[in-house]
Amino acid sequence: MIRLFVLSAFLAFASAVHAQPARSVPELAGLDRVYPTLDALYQDLHRNPELSKHEDKTAAKLAARMREVGFEVTEHVGGTGIVGILRNGNGPTVLVRTDMDALPLKETTGLPYASKVTTKSEGGEVTPVMHACGHDIHMASWVGAATLLSGLKDRWHGTLVFIGQPAEEMVSSANAMVKDGLFTRFPKPDFVLGLHDTSPRRRVRLDALRVGAGREARAGLDRDTHAA
Ligand SMILES: [Zn+2]
């Protein structure tokens, strides 16, 4: 699944920036090389989930990985949100989003890396926590796309804005990031890309929005991709 999500994010970026058939992008060959580290990150995130607005360790892990691959990272944007910037000359600005929070649910998958985490909820009750919504996959894939793009700066031009959004489950922190200057402190995007699994059909929902004035500025890059 991580491969599929990295693929989707990368291909959406290529479509937005180059307007070329996405599947002709040869640079994806680098995915095999970085995949072991992405899988290790995925298992770490899955084993250590954090509830909405408490994604402190999760955000710190993502920030560290993004700095390793050359992004300029700002933390604590709209709470635990992070913003990573990679500038590469003139060209479009593309924002790629991942969500970071987990759910107050008990994991019963029996996986070797299953979550055993419990924490106190907003109401003060002890609750189990797990990544039941796929945000661990989203985050690992987000790092994967950033890693590949950072290594291919001779093949694209523009600015990448990679954001880690807190509290997607509460539908509140996207607004908090905007209020904290997401579009004023950082480069304003021409395109916004976000993706989410749609279990149980095992599909990737990828939404892309071309930012601009007028109805005609909205680009139809929505794509459903079947999982392998
Ligand atoms: Zn979700």
Describe this structure in words.
- The protein is 31% helix and 24% strand.
- With 228 residues, it is an alpha+beta fold.
- It has a 7-stranded mixed sheet, sandwiched between helices. Strands 4-5 form a two-stranded antiparallel sheet.
- A hairpin with a 3-residue loop joins β1 (72-77) and β2.
- α1 (2-18) crosses α4 (135-150) and α2 packs antiparallel against α4 (135-150).
- The chain is globular and about 50 Å long.
Order of helices and strands: HHHEEEEEHEHEEE
Biggest sheet record: 7 strands, mixed
Gyration radius (Cα, Å) is 17 Å
Number of domains: 1
CATH topology: Aminopeptidase
Ligand inventory reads: zinc ion
Distance between the termini: 8 Å
Number of strands: 9
CATH architecture assignment: 3-Layer(aba) Sandwich
**CATH evolutionary superfamily:** Zn peptidases
Helix content: 25-40%
Biggest sheet, spatial arrangement of strands = 1-2-6-3-7-8-9
Unreliable spans: 213-228
Look at the structure and give the CATH class: Alpha Beta
DSSP strand (E) fraction? 15-25%
DSSP helix count?
A: 5
Q: What is the mean predicted local confidence, pLDDT?
A: 83
Give the overall shape, derived from the CA principal axes. Answer: globular
Structural class: alpha+beta
Strand and helix map with partners:
Layout: H1 2-18, H2 31-47, H3 56-68, E1 72-77, E2 81-88, E3 93-99, E4 118-120, E5 126-128, H4 135-150, E6 158-165, H5 173-179, E7 191-197, E8 203-210, E9 223-226
Parallel strand pairs: 3-6, 3-7
Antiparallel strand pairs: 1-2, 2-6, 4-5, 7-8, 8-9
Helix pairs in contact: 1-4, 2-4
Zinc ion is lined by residues 99, 133, 135, 168, 196.
